[in-house]
Amino acid sequence: MASNFRQNLLSLLCFWTLIPLFLKQSMAVDTLKAGQSINDTQFIVSATQKFELGFFTEPKSSNFKYLGIWYKEIPDVVVWVANRDKPIINSSATLNINGDGNLVLVNQTGEAFWFSNSSRSVKNAIAQLLDTGNFVIRDSTSESENYVWQSFDYPFDTLLPGMKLGWDLKTGLNRKLISRRSQMDLSSGKLSYGINTDGLPQLMVREGNKTMFRGWPWFGDGFRRSRSQEANFVYNTSLEISFSYSNDPDNEPSRVVLDSSGFVVHYVWSKRDENWHSSYTFEGSGCNSYELCGNFGLCSSVLVASCGCLDGFERKPNQNISDGCVRKDPETCRKGEGFRKISNVKWPDSSGEFVKIKLGTQNCEKECLNNCSCLAYGALKIPGIGASCVNWFGKLIDIRFNRDAGTGEDLFVRVAASELESSNKKSGVAVVVAMVIISILIFLALISWFIIRRVRRSARGILDKGAVMIEALIEENELEMPIGLIEGATDHFSISNKIGEGGFGPVYKGKLPSGHEIAVKKLAERSRQGIQETDRSWDKTVKIDERRRSLLNWPMRIDIIVGIARGLLYLHRDSRLRIIHRDLKAANILLDSEMKPKISDFGIARMFGEDQTETKTKRVVGTFGYMSPEYVIDGCFSFKSDVFSFGVMLLEIVSGKKNQHFFHTEHHQLNLLGHVWKLWNAGRALEFVDETLRDQIEEYETLKYINIGLLCIQGRPEKRPTMSSVLSMLENDNMEFISPGRPGFYEERFEWFDADSSPPLDVKLTSSSNNVVTVTLFDGR
After folding, report:
1. Of all helices (H) and strands (E), which one includes residue 607?
2. Which residues is 409 bridged to in the sheet?
3. For residues 325 and 269, what is the distance between their CA atoms, to the nearest angstrom?
4. Which terminus of the chain, N or C, has less C-beta within 10 A?
5. Which residues pair with 300 in a beta bridge?
6. Which one is catalytic: 40, 583, 601, 762?
7. Is residue 491 flagged as an active site residue?
């Protein structure tokens, strides 16, 4: 017994001796001193556990090893990478501080893959990971922020609060974000986001040397009329020209990312639902597209982006809009020339080759007139200097009207004398005409007010008789239509114009006097399926027999998928009224005589403001099988909710089967979404394709569409792509496949009905504060 006791005591002592060795591998410190190193099993953690530095592999199944920084509590989000363009392959890795005080990253043979290359050496060097996410080298004997080197000066694709973009005189660096080559490839892509410091400073996204889109020119302390409270601007030509932003008031983690498709997205972390939410997206679509309207063009965005010409300019016949405009009167620099004022615009590109700044000058008009090459001018006040002038030469490109009155600038464009003369002649007549028009408008307004008031008062009384209700979904005057106009468009709701019937009543097609086609839902207390529809929906095409379904070949299905994507992108991004449909499903995709898709039924759609990305409702309305999990469970919906529904439809179109009706003997517990994910992971995705298409498809293209569908139906909304990214992938013939995450409602299979039966598809869910959900079923829709 004594012998056993001594043996156990010896084992215990050996165990306690080994504990420090185990702790050494897992202990978290925020510093690395000269002579110390960390290997690929160790980490450095900032003082308050916000950020972590260490080694990781990307893709995770690969042998590519990187040194990077990520959020400790959100490890999948990497914010900085040291050796992005030179990964260590098939080897262990070590980070240490050499004798010059530089960080060096080496593999197991001692080959250097990255080093900090600081401008000056420090004897007592120490590397420290700060709570800002900045990895710095400093003198260990000094607590000052006089860093020898810092990772913030060498950005990845992410801008963190307090991190700066732009030029720093002390270091000679012009800091910018560089995109990844793809979502899974960390190496430097072609896109960059930074400040053009030549001329008026402008934030720009460029592809190589080509400008894709740019922000508003700024000077002094920032954008003159539209400065964000979180944005910080510095303009000091002897010190720095930089842009940075502060953390949000709630001190939640946030980041700005330049993604591989060229979007600049500001993400904020929500502790409540442990999710990243995009609070702002800066992208080169619509009027933001740099060369959309060309030289002397003017972009305006109401419902869609449209190009016009500046005053005194016109477009040549049969000319592309990107070719710009030319002067109506080519004779310039003559007596009598002057300027036309254009208010509330984004100033033209203010790069150095196009612009000159006259400091302290007050008479900007005279300055511009004295130079025959001057095309336009603008006036600004610079802090500490006073009134100054900006003159443009060579080109006036990338001008747009600003949506919000009072947030744009005044631009004075040089026009020929003949233009001013003709304008003066017209002005006298215009005053008389204007007085007559104003009188007529006042009279018509009074009549319209009485008519609208009478219609609104009578609406409630006639609702039970099946009258049409135009719900004030979007408060825009141009969308309000008198009932008489709708009756005329639908031929008084003629049966010949009926295109279907849903849970809330029949739907009619119509044509306005302008030629625009519309669909009108007529509310009814009770409804049943009506006569045979004159238009078909994808829902009807899926349900027909195999022989008729085979008539819809693979190219037709591709056209339908791309058409739906384009329509949805218009609703989400290009329309002035940014709209979330909330009820995207096969039955709401109408196919015209040419089999082109039309998105219909906006009865429960919601409009979002320009900076709004998501909201929450207590009344969930939609269709099972198409609703996203965050919408069904928590009532949260966003543009990503529509993306989920689109992904379901895409997979239905490819497979020729419906999600809600799907049953497979191999995966009997899974719905359509779970089934295709299983097949994808097993390398059998082509088995998912509609049997009638097997001899028409090309392997890569088919897998691409399935991959995009799987990316859209991922359970977490932040993992799903935006519709602009979806369309870009659909039109990319060389898309690299991306590993999709687990779908939403992966194992949803409820035995409410037999596999061959047809359950009701439409539901209205109403959730209350005590998490009770009421489900109401409808007959059809």
Report:
1. strand 606-608
2. 345
3. 45
4. N
5. 306
6. 583
7. no
> What does the alpha-carbon distance between residue 374 and residue 351 come to, in Å, rounded to a whole number?
15
Please report which helix (H) or strand (E) contains residue 696, including its range: none
**Residue 764: Cβ-neighbour burial (10 angstroms; 0-12, 13-18, 19+):** middle
Q: Is the dihedral of CA 288, 292, 296, 302 positive or negative?
A: negative
Calculate ∠ Cα 140-142-146, nearest 5°: 105
Distances (CA, A) of 129 to 53, 73, 526, 594, 733: 8, 16, 66, 61, 42
Q: How far is CA 135 from CA 42, 82, 157, in A?
A: 16, 11, 16
Q: Name the packing angle between helices 723-730 and 639-655 (round to 10°).
A: 30
714-753 per-position pLDDT tens digit: 988 889 999 989 998 998 888 889 989 889 876 544 443 3
Length of the chain: 781
Query: Which two tokens mark 139?
Result: 């003198």
Q: What is the pairing mode between strands 505-511 and 517-521? A: antiparallel
Picking from 163, 323, 351, the residue whose alpha carbon sits closest to that of residue 258 is 163
3-state secondary structure of 6: helix
Between 237 and 772, where is the model more confident? 237
- Report strand pairing: 44-45 vs 37-39: unpaired
pLDDT-above-70 percentage for the chain: 71
Q: How far apart are CA 110 and CA 30, in angstroms?
A: 25
Contact by Cβ (8 Å): 744, 624:
no
Q: Is 676:685 a contact under the CB 8 Å cutoff?
A: yes
* Distance, first Cα to last Cα, the chain: 83
SS3 16: helix
648, 627 contact by CB (below 8 A):
no
353 and 342 in contact (C-beta within 8 Å)? no
Q: Phi/psi of residue 150, each to 5°?
A: -150, 145
Phi and psi at residue 328, to the nearest 5°: -70, -40
What confidence tens digit (pLDDT) does each residue in 255-303 have? Answer: 999 998 888 999 999 888 888 888 888 888 788 889 889 999 998 875 5
Give the type of residue at 356: K
Q: Give me the residue label for tokens 């104003």.
A: 438
Confidence at residue 591, expressed as pLDDT on a 0 to 100 scale: 79
Secondary structure of residue 781 in the 3-state scheme = coil
- Structural element, H or E, at residue 13: helix 2-26
Q: How far apart are CA 401 and CA 345, in angstroms?
A: 4
Cα gap 730→739, rounded to integer Å: 16
On the question of a cis peptide bond just before residue 59, with omega within 30 degrees of 0, the verdict is: yes
Phi-psi region of 79 (alpha: psi -120 to 50; beta: other; left: phi over 0): alpha
Going from the C-alpha of 57 to that of each of 42, 81, 95, 111, the distances in angstroms are: 14, 11, 16, 19
| Tokens coding 342 | 């254009």
Dist. CA 449–CA 453, nearest whole Å: 6
Residue 413's beta-bridge partner residues? Answer: 340, 376
Q: What are phi and psi of 621, to 5 degrees?
A: -125, 130
Could you report the per-residue pLDDT of 369-409, keeping only the tens digit for each? 989 999 999 988 777 777 888 999 999 999 998 766 566 88
Residues 435 and 446: their CA atoms lie apart, in Å, by: 17
C-alpha separations of 519 from 287, 400, 516, 645 in Å: 29, 33, 10, 21
742 neighbors 714 (Cβ within 8 angstroms): yes
Give the gyration radius of the chain's Cα atoms: 32
Between the alpha carbon of residue 659 and those of residues 544, 738, 745, 763, the distances in Å are 16, 23, 11, 15
Q: Which amino acid is at 324?
A: G
Amino acid sitting at position 758: S
Give the pLDDT score at 207. Answer: 92
